[in-house]
Structures are given as C-alpha cells and as structure tokens.
Amino acid sequence: MIDKKTIEHIAKLARLNITENEAAEYSAQMGKILQNFDMIAKVETGGIEPLVTPTEIEAYWREDQAHNTATPEEMLTNAPARVGNLYKVPPVV
Amino acid sequence: MSFRGYEAVIGIEIHVQLNTASKIFCSDATNFDAGDNENVSPVSAGMPGTLPVVNKKAIEYGIKTGLALGCEIRKKSVFSRKNYFYPDSPKGYQISQYDLPICENGFITFKVNGVDKTVHISRAHLEEDAGKSTHSGEYTLINLNRAGIPLLEIVTGPDMRTPAEAAEYGRAIRQIVRYLDVCDGNLEEGSMRCDCNVSVRKEGSTQFGTKVEIKNVNSFRFVEKAIEYEIERQIDAVERGEKILQETRLWDPDKNRTFAMRSKEDAQDYRYFPDPDLLPLIVTKEMIDEIKSKLPELPIARAKRFQDAHGLPEYDATVLTTEKSWADFYEETAQESKNFKASSNWIMTELMRELNSANKEIAHSPITPKQLGRMIALIDNGTISGKIAKTVFQEMWNSGKDPEVVIKEKGLVQITDPATIEKLVDEVLAANVQSVEDHKTGKKKNLFGFFVGAVMKASKGQANPELVNKILQEKLK
C-alpha cells in the first residue's frame, strides 16, 4: 500500500487535482503495481553492472546543422489556447 | 574570512549555453533573435513518437570545456531523464546526465584581489535547456525556442568562502568559455546562468550547515550581493536560534534581498533513470586527444607567457588577456612592431579609449593590428615622433588608412635634417632676443624648455626632439 499522503504529494508534483476517493483508489492500485516490482527486486543482482541499454550498437551522432522542420503555425495547431505565436497555459506562479 | 564569527561555505552551479547552430537533440536553429516558437519542431515540443539524436558539436564543446577545466573525460557517459512537471518542459522530463556525467574531477585557478584561488570542479554534464515562461498573473505564456538548446552545467565543490571568490569564479568561467568559443558568455541573454549554494557554520566547525540555493542570478555583481545578503540572513537566523530551512530562494535585485521560492513540502523527486531513447555516449581516446590538441592557450598561461617571453608587466599581461580577441590583437601588433611594451601601451591606452567611446568591439576596430604594428615601427625607426604618432593614430582611426599613407598625405614625416632644424632654431632665437639674453646671463632660469617648445611649435611638432635639443644647446653656449 502507498499511503494517501504520498499519493497526494505525487499528484501535486504532477500538477494533478485528485479527489479523496481517487486518492484512496490510487493508493491501492499503486500498491499493487509496486508489489509486482518487489518480485523483481528479489532477484539477486550483486556484482552485476546496471544495464543502461540492452543493445550494443554505437550511438549515431548528428552533424551540427540547423534546419527548422516546422512553422510556428504548425507547432501551435494543437494548442488549446494561444497568444500570438505563444502557447497560453494556466498561471504557474 | 570571518562573518561575525561564522564562516560561509559556497558552491556554484553555472549553466553554460553552448553556442551550437542547432539544438542538442534535433536540428532546430538556436538563434536568440528568432520569432516566437519559430525554432520548434515535434522533437523539441515533446510530441509522442519523436526520437532525440545527439548533436556531435555539443559533445565536442562539452569535452573541450571539460579538458580546459582539467577534468577527466568519461569514455562512456549516460543521458538520464530528470522528471518534473512544468509547462516550459514539454516532455515532462529534462534530458540530463546524472550518475555518469561526461566530465568530472577538474579544477580552475583564478585571482581574487591578486591572490591565486583554486576551486575544485566536481562535475560538468550535458543537458537540454527548458523553454521560456512569461507570467502575467492571469495566465502563463510559453516560448519553446530555448527548449533543447545544449547546456553544460558546471558544478564546483563547496570550496568558496567569500562572495568575492564566488563572483571571481564566475568571471573566470566566463573568460574560459569565451576563449574556447563554446559560449558567448552573455549573461543578460541567459547564455550563462548561476545558481549559488550557500551555508554558514561557526568558525572552526568542520560540519556543513544546511545549504540554501539561490537561483536566477544574472550578473556576477549580483552573485556577490546575493551571497552577501544570504550569509547575513543565515547568521541572523542562527543567532536567533532558528533552524535554516533547506530551500530554494530567488534574488531580487531591486530590493537587494533573497526570498523563498519553493518550500520544503514542494521538494521535487526527480526519479532519474537512463533515457531509453538514447544510447550511452561513447567517446574515444582519439576524439579526446584530437580536441585536446586544438585547445587554445588559456588566459592564465597566456598572461604568464606575455610576462616571461615579452617582458610585459603583470598588469599589462592581465588586462590584455581578459578577452581572447584583445590578446590576439596584441600579439599580431607586437609581431609587426617588434616592440612588446609599446604595442601593449598603444592598445591599452589609445585604442581602448577609442573603442570605449565608440562602443566598438576590438574585432571591429578600424585600425588593424598590422597597421598599428607598422605605425609603432615607424616611431621606432624615427620616421615619425611619438607625438606626431598620436595625430597619425587619430587619422588612422577616422579613415582606416595605412600609417604610411596618412604620413604622406598629411606631410607628417619627422624632420631629421640638421640644416632644416638649425634654420628653425635660428628663427626662434632671432625672434626672442631678450629671452636669449636672459638665458645667457642667468637672469631667468628654465628658459631652455621654452626654446625647445617654440622650435617644436615652429616645426608643427615634426622636428626630431633630440636634434632640436642638441642644436639649441650648441647655439646657446
């Protein structure tokens, strides 16, 4: 179980409003998810280097060439609100 | 240094914006003057299904800076996701480096009031910048042009003890990144941003006090002021028996104080983990050696060479190496003139004065280093006098013409013909019979200088002063 206080804290960091009932519901659900991870945590991993990626291929690097691929108009198409070419969002301070 | 029986412990994080042409994980342009959201693409806006691809130059610039700061370069470093929710971070995380940064364990030495200070660089890691928020109260506006611009975050150990040391550290980093040409160092445009970690402890204590982070300080003068304020605030609190809260504070330059930005309850939990969209960053020894071989001479080494090999005073060497462009200008001038000190003098006094009053960068000086060098050589070989040179210099500044052309056009060649000078001397003496008498009888003293001045004036300043002296002395015997 994840206690309700932790759920409320995570919700706050994620800027989500949740109700009392939702907090109780999520606390049970999140608890179950973590129980599954507990199973993985039981695997003996002493002496094994943490895995960053399963592939062994070399990273591909891009040359530093500027090339804009979209217009502001295209990038703002999905925005629910805008002012000029700026995204408009609820106040954050 | 003691502050009312307390010692301050200061560490600094500087975000250096790397001046690449495109962003760190996509090809969006990075120019500061772009229109709103003009440099944005599905990658930098965090659209689902997009993938980041690393910019080679950003990696090179990171390594270059790390090497200049004496860091070890990690051959295999990892990009991690730093998770937090804020509208200027469209993906809900920032791609950064966490436990495996590209640069570690370096140092930087700089002067504070003439004394060497060395600060340990614990790490320098690559990350992407966030967008820019403009808050109006009613709503917030977001511009993502800056989202994804490469940053190198340079982190020091808790090594500084005074606000002045912290400010000088910042200036030293700025000087180095400008020498390396990896960042323009423009604090007003946000190309460099400083966060200061400050704590206080009783003098003699070896334990650290609780640290407070001051964010958003956009000048080194403010770094000094903000830390000064913060030290006093923390000592006051401790003296009152209060506990220092671990918090983030903002500097308000108008009110000259810091104020709490985030409370402890809002403490972030970034949940770093390796970014599965990016492969580990592998750099080879060959690549590091290649970058190392191209590192420019850094300011402290260059100033030392100017003193040792050119015989310049410490003051000249320090001033001339403040900016790479000044040091380059000086070296080219000196190479042409073969006179180190005179080159330094002309640049530091005449040229700097003109540049300042015209508000010009040295790169846009109408007088080239070669022209200035040749002008100095013309003084040294007696073609023009030091005094006439000031006229020549002024004309070169105004017209951009070569010194030889200016001298020819204005007829400013020094008069070194004894017969011509003798004629001028005779004229002056004939016009001042009474003064000659007073001089010879000793009735009036110090008249010799008057005669020299009169002859120089008669020659429009072009007579060789030594010859004037010699001929006058003979005539007045």
Q: How are the secondary structure elements laid out?
A:
The complex is a heterodimer of chains A (93) and B (477).
Chain A: H1 4-13, H2 20-41, E1 61-62, H3 72-75, E2 82-83, E3 86-89
Antiparallel strand pairs in A: 2-3
Helix pairs in contact in A: 1-2
Chain B: E1 6-17, E2 54-55, H1 56-68, E3 72-73, E4 76-77, E5 80-83, E6 93-96, E7 103-112, E8 115-128, E9 132-135, E10 140-143, E11 150-156, H2 163-180, E12 192-202, E13 212-217, H3 220-239, E14 248-252, E15 257-262, E16 273-274, E17 281-282, H4 285-293, H5 299-308, H6 314-320, H7 324-337, H8 340-358, H9 369-380, H10 386-399, H11 403-410, H12 418-431, H13 433-441, H14 448-458, H15 465-475
Parallel strand pairs in B: 13-14
Antiparallel strand pairs in B: 1-11, 1-12, 3-7, 4-17, 5-6, 5-16, 7-8, 8-11, 9-10, 12-13, 14-15
Helix pairs in contact in B: 2-3, 5-6, 7-8, 7-9, 9-10, 12-14, 12-15, 14-15
What is the overall pLDDT average of chain B?
Answer: 93
SS-derived structural category of chain B:
alpha+beta
Number of strands of chain A: 3
Mean pLDDT of chain A: 89
Number of helices of chain A: 3
How far is the first residue's CA from the last residue's CA of chain A?
A: 33 Å
Plain-language structure description:
The complex is a heterodimer of chains A (93) and B (477). Chain A is mainly α and 93 residues long. Chain A has a domain at 1-42: Histone, subunit A (Orthogonal Bundle). In chain A, 39% of the residues lie in helices and 9% in strands. Chain A has helices at residues 4-13, 20-41, 72-75, and strands at 61-62, 82-83, 86-89. A two-stranded antiparallel ribbon of chain A has the order 2-3. Chain A starts with a helix and ends with a strand. Chain B has 477 residues and is an alpha+beta fold. Chain B has 3 domains: 6-290, no CATH class; 297-410, no CATH class; 418-476, Arc Repressor Mutant, subunit A (Orthogonal Bundle). Helix content of chain B is 40%, strand content 20%. Chain B is built from 15 helices and 17 strands. The termini of chain B are far apart. The mean pLDDT of chain B is 93. Classes of the chains: A mainly alpha (93), B alpha+beta (477). The A-B interface holds A 10, 12-15, 52-53, 55, 57-72, 75-76, 81, 83-93 and B 20-22, 27-30, 35-42, 45, 53-59, 78, 84-87, 133-144, 266, 268-269, 274, 276, 278-282. Strand 1 of chain A pairs parallel with strand 2 (54-55) of chain B.
